[in-house]
Amino acid sequence: MLVTQFLVLGALLFCCGIYGVLARRNAVMILMSIELMLNAVNINLITFGHLHGDVGAQVFALFVIAVAAAEVGVGLAIVLLIYRNRSSINVEDLDLMRG
Amino acid sequence: MMLLAVFDRPSIDWHAFAPETVLLSALLLVLLLDVIFDERAKRIIPTVAGAGLLGALLPVVTLAVDGQDRFMFGGAFAVDDAALVLKALFLISGYVVVLLSIDYIRDGDYYENEYYTLLMSSLLGMLMIASSRDLVSMFVALELLSIPAYMLAAWRKGGPTSNEAGIKYYLMGVFASAVMLYGMSLLYGVAGSTTFADIGLAVSGEDASPLVVLAILFVVVGFAFKVSAVPFHAWAPDTYEGAPTPITAFLAVASKAAGFVALLQLVFVAFVGRPDVVEPLFWVLAALTMTVGNLVALRQENIVRMLAYSGVAQGGFMLVPLAVSGDAGDSAITAVVTYLIIYAFMNLGAFGVVMAVARKTRSGQISSYGGLFSYAPGLAVAMTVFLASLAGIPPLGGWFAKFVVIQSLFDAATVSSAVLGVIFAVNTVIAFGYYARVLREMWFSPVSDGDSTPIKVPAAIATALVLTAVATVASGVLPQLVGRFGDISTSLAL
Q: How many domains is chain A built from?
């Protein structure tokens, strides 16, 4: 059974995503890293669904894909807004409020 | 055709669904009015939105009178007493937020009609989350309430601080939901089903497997972001300061309540067999959240930031009963729900006063509250009520909220609950420090900018203040009023 390999792939993708979110400074790169994490979730779900012989997981994965699309739509809009106002999408420049 | 033939249409109980349906219809009506009448619709849209929220309360009441637990979609959507109490809480706080928004959004340079549409979609997500007993429905409800909130936080399009508030909230929120989803996928792997009832059966047992521990950890961390628990609170102060103030009130009250509602369902339905994992996790979160929130609040100069950290600390107080969930049982649910209800009113009230004062002083500094009593006695008295209640001074609601938390600790009666009780008590005293500072400014300091013309409070904000102040005082003087709602919430149906 290939279950372990797929779960390891999912875990690796998830770790890549977390690393990207923590290490990258470009907002779009952070968004892409979050997509990696969500796809790791999808791989996990499909693997477990196959393991349990249940279609519920595939439905869940479809929901994750759909909601991720909505999330990215809103996220890119906010990033665009920031780019228009300050010509930079480096998240380290976002330090107007502190304390 | 083949597919249609085998498709077994699930029976839909429209009465159980009615609060959501009414809210959705009102939302679509607002959207339609905006499309058809555009600018001319601006005057009536807040009224329609408010009426829609109050209208959605009606089926909540009829369902409560009916008193029957209802289930739909294979147990994914449950309507029980707890869900109804929380739905009513969300709708009423949503209504107060609409009242607070009317003048703020009209006077500022904002898109108005879309604002109410998004506010109502977020509330729709909250109504759904109160009923969800399944990973998929909880996830969808959580995103339905979060995504509009990201946009609302960045609603002041030209304002760099609002943009910053939006992106910080968005990135943290999306990251948290990704972590939570990973935990959910592991939970599904353990249980082979997405309903909380099945997960509850699968995760309980002799010893917790590492997979279960990891899954619980990830899911709880995801929601810890939502309720801004330390160390996952970094977004909260910046987002609260930068977002439009009514949205800050909305995030601090309704959005946080939604996070707690989800945590309640997870802890008391899905993870009920694993107190050995859940309790230590929440113990650490609660202790850290109370202490850090309070200590940082002490040195804030901006009132919204101070209320943000005070909100973090209050969230810590609400996490306390979850840390004794296994030992205290029902009284922990009562404590969280009671605290949520009282917190909603006193915090919304405090933000209402902040908005009313900011209309004149145009400042968020605590020092700008100097001499408030001399020129706006009504607002000063209202703010005193709200802050004293947040601090937990006896005749007011906040006192009763703290009392039920302590009661749940006594019910648990373990060493760890006693230690947590001591941390709780110390933090209550620290919290008094920063609330009292605002009180001292208002009552004893001279007028800060020398301008002591009285403040004109718009009718909508005044209504919201009266509503919240009455609720804050009443819940303290007649604690059984709110306590009853807390008590009936213990019947979380599977």
A: 1
> Nearest CA of chain B to the CA of A1: how many Å?
15
**Is A78 in Cβ contact with B167 (below 8 Å)?**
yes
Q: Which residues of chain A neighbour B300 with C-beta distances below 8 Å?
A: 99
Interface test with A, best of B174, B180, B235, B310 (most A CBs within 10 A): B174
CA B256 to chain A, closest CA, distance in angstroms equals: 20
Per residue in B370-418, pLDDT (tens digit) is 888 888 888 999 999 999 999 988 888 889 999 999 989 988 888 888 9
Range of the domain at A16: 3-91
Report the distance separating Cα B311 and Cα B252, nearest Å: 7
Asked whether the beta carbons of B341 and B416 are under 8 A apart, the reply is no
Q: Domain for residue A27, yes or no?
A: yes
Q: Domain for residue A71, yes or no? A: yes
Structural domain includes residue A97: no
Helix (H) or strand (E) holding B78: strand B77-79
- Say which CATH number the domain at A77 has: 1.10.287.3510
Q: How far does CA B241 lie from the centroid of its chain?
A: 17
Contact: B163, A85; criterion CB under 8 Å: yes
B189: nearest CB among A21, A48, A70: A48
In a domain, A96, yes or no: no
Can you state the percent helix, strand and coil of chain A, rounding each to 5? 80, 0, 15
- B202-216, B300-314, B461-475: least confidently modelled range: B202-216
A24 CB-contact burial (10 Å; exposed 0-12 / middle 13-18 / buried 19+) = middle
Contact A67/B143, CB-based, under 8 Å?
A: yes
Q: Is there a contact between A74 and B171 if contact means CB atoms under 8 Å apart?
A: no
- Cβ of A97 within 8 Å of Cβ of B135? The answer is no
Calculate Rg over the CA atoms of chain B: 22
pLDDT digit string, tens, across residues A14-69: 999 999 999 988 999 999 999 999 999 999 999 999 999 888 899 999 999 999 99
